[in-house]
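Input sequence (152 aa), recorded before submission:
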Amino acid sequence: MTSASKEGQLVTQFFNFFGSQTVRGSSRNNSVSALKSFIRRLNEDVYCASIAVDGPKGPALKSKPGILEISRITKKNVYSIGTSCSSFWTLKKTWDQTRVPKPFSKVVYHVDLVQQGLTRDQDPRDPEVLETFEAALTKNYKKALGILDQKS
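Predicted structure, token format:
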């Protein structure tokens, strides 16, 4: 899911170039229709989906309950892609201090199951559920850092 903004258009073009599809929308504009379209595609079992769990305004690395709500509705598991790179530029003017790998740097991706599909009786807004989810995300990110350190 990408924003309906100009920046979201750039992200959409990037993903389309690599053969992926996006659903356009945001938490402020077209949120319900974007969410329905996103869930419809997930339920087709043809697509894997990705969401920045701390977006669209942060705070950075602080998960929102939306991803867990989608997991509960679709009964799908949530996987984390922990990434790390040996050399990068930091985009200082972005809300999350986005990092862009420099050419020829080492980049590591570590994929891990961080949340089984939530059941109907689990509340995605429950602070304990969110805390457990964030801990799993952090653990996966640290694994990516550790792998990069071992390869250096």
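Checked by second reader. The CA atoms of residues 36 and 89 lie 36 Å apart.
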